[in-house]
Automatic annotation (TrEMBL):
Gene3D superfamilies: 1.10.1660.10. This is MerR HTH family regulatory protein. Pfam families: MerR_2. It comes from the Bacteria.
Length: 128
């Protein structure tokens, strides 16, 4: 079988010039004020790329993360600064649960060994 005489061409979807969103568009997609989006960035909750003119550009993949912050802020009596820690802990718990499911609990879970307190008077040599 001989190769085709000319390369095949397939119609592709037009890719936007920039895959990042500016502050205003990102805030619109999140349903927030741009100042709150800048506060999330300042707290380190969402990453952003800085343009030469100083403007912030966000990935569209961060929209669900912002929705998660909004849900947690509405249901827990926490400020936005504490939400970063809460999200990190929730992600860590999810990773550990996934590891347990993957492991299938075939390996024994490490048991805690009870430790004796170090300052018990009847066991200490220095007790007088």
């Amino acid at each position: 079988m001989s190769p085709p005489s000319r390369p095949l061409r397939y119609p592709l979807a037009r890719r936007p010039a920039s895959a990042l969103l500016d502050e205003v568009e990102f805030a619109r997609r999140c349903g927030l004020h741009p100042e709150l989006v800048r506060r999330f960035w300042a707290l380190g909750l969402i990453p952003a790329a800085r343009h030469l003119d100083g403007s912030l550009w966000f990935s569209p993949a961060q929209v669900p993360a912002v929705a998660r912050f909004q849900r947690l802020h509405a249901t827990l009596p926490l400020n936005y600064a504490a939400l970063g820690l809460v999200c990190d802990l929730l992600d860590r718990i999810a990773d550990l649960e996934t590891a347990l499911r993957v492991r299938g609990r075939t390996e024994p879970v490490r048991r805690r060994i009870p430790q004796e307190p170090a300052n018990r008077p009847e066991r200490s040599q220095l007790w007088t």
